Amino acid sequence: MRITMIGAGYVGLVSGACFADFGHQVCCIDRDPEKLAMLKGGKIPIYEPGLEELVTTNALQGRLRFDDNLADAVSQSDVVFIAVGTPSRRGDGFADLSFVYDAAAEVGRALKGFTVVVTKSTVPVGTGDEVERIIREQNPAADFAVVSNPEFLREGSAIDDFKRPDRIIVGTDATGAKAVMGEVYRPLSLNAAPIFYTSRRTAELTKYAGNAFLAMKITFINEIADLCERLGADVQDVARGIGMDNRIGAKFLHAGPGYGGSCFPKDTLALVKTAQDAASPIRLIETTVSINDQRKRAMARKVVDACGGSVRGKTIGVLGLTFKPNTDDMRDAPSLAIIQALKDAGASIKAYDPVGMEQARKLIEGIEFGDSAYAVADGSHAIVIVTEWNAFRSLDLKRLRALMAMPVMVDLRNVYRGEDVVKEGIAYSSVGRER
Ligand code: UGA
Questions:
Q1: What count of Cα atoms within 13 Å lies in the side-chain half-sphere of residue 90?
Q2: Which residues are noted in the entry as NAD(+)-binding (predicted)?
Q3: pTM for this prediction
Q4: Model confidence over 186-202: pLDDT tens digits?
Q5: Is this complex scored with an ipTM above 0.85?
Q6: Enzyme catalytic residues
Q7: Whose CA is nearest to atom 7 of ligand 1?
């Protein structure tokens, strides 16, 4: 298949590289000249394990190329994926679809022969209808079908998620488009990943419903964690205990400082807005959004408590800044709200992240950056584990203790067993456990 991928962002780049790896001919289109120059030189603008190698190999073997000429690529393609950004619109929280609609208009002008146009970006219900209308308006005689094919990959394990999905969702009623999509994903269906065909609107909503459910699941266990702290129970055991029930499932029950990232916060908000507009508000998700917003900042209170009631004049060492490990993504990272709240309470902040420092420096002002966990611990009155990078899982606790001005660890990801830390003379608190 000849595939055009519009947008060399997270989803576009990973999907484009994986499709090329399946043996398809893929052209990734992006407007950003700097990004294109990097990609053509074999450099990846984001941090994602394994992606650089995958891109380089497929580019060298001639299956993957990068360009800014959308019209040329589209006119020669069987399938065109739209994988541009859909950020939250400033002010009202609806998804901003201007990039999607601009791409659709350009695609419409360039189409030649039967072409399947696929929205891979996360888009509100009805966007496919609008994409179809825009293409038809640009090119009344065009032979095309618009399909919704949402993506479920996670940052940090994107390639694995793409190549081993639980399912592939294809939203279309057009028989020709179904056959083309079956061909695009054939290597995965050989691996027994089911392709689930449904209507376009249903596919669009399925993506939002999935992310909202996962965000709700995390928020649920976070509230149970707070209750555990009050009642002297252990949230990890509660999570294990309920997770063993197949109807609930063990995943996404890890209590922490609240979900962040480029997807859950944006998608839950967009779903809330869409539902309100449709006069069918989803109160569970409205509540999820507001609990999670408050939670991030509330985590600073844990640190204040662990420091004896005040952090004024104290130095707090923050370990981990990205919204999760194995990414350099800082979007809606809990660290941002926690650091701000600690600064507001009068603390000085030292911070370190194994990969996210460059992005973090652009976003966080007025703090000191250290170049290791130990540099951050040096002179600190408490260290706070905000992101569960592997590098923080086996710290030399004796060395930490010796460096710190006050030996306190607040473990917001429950990485340690409290007794191991306390044994080294470091006061320890975590989330939803007595220790
Ligand atoms: C999420 C979904 O998991 C993907 O399926 C989806 O494709 C993607 O959004 C998207 O819409 O593009 P991602 O945001 O990359 O993926 O990362 P997750 O691993 O889902 O983590 C999101 C946040 O939830 C992180 O801040 C993480 O720390 C937090 N989390 C996750 C918890 O606090 N507890 C958990 O048990 C799991």
A1: 0
A2: 30, 35, 86, 122, 155, 266, 331
A3: 0.94
A4: 998 777 889 999 999 99
A5: yes
A6: 263
A7: 152
Query: To test ligand 1's pocket by mutation, which of 51, 153, 329, 336 has the most ligand atoms within 8 angstroms of CB?
Result: 153
**Is the C-beta atom of 268 inside 6 A of ligand 1?**
no
Closest CA to 207 of 174, 170, 172: 170
Asked whether 259 lines ligand 1 (CB < 6 A), one says yes
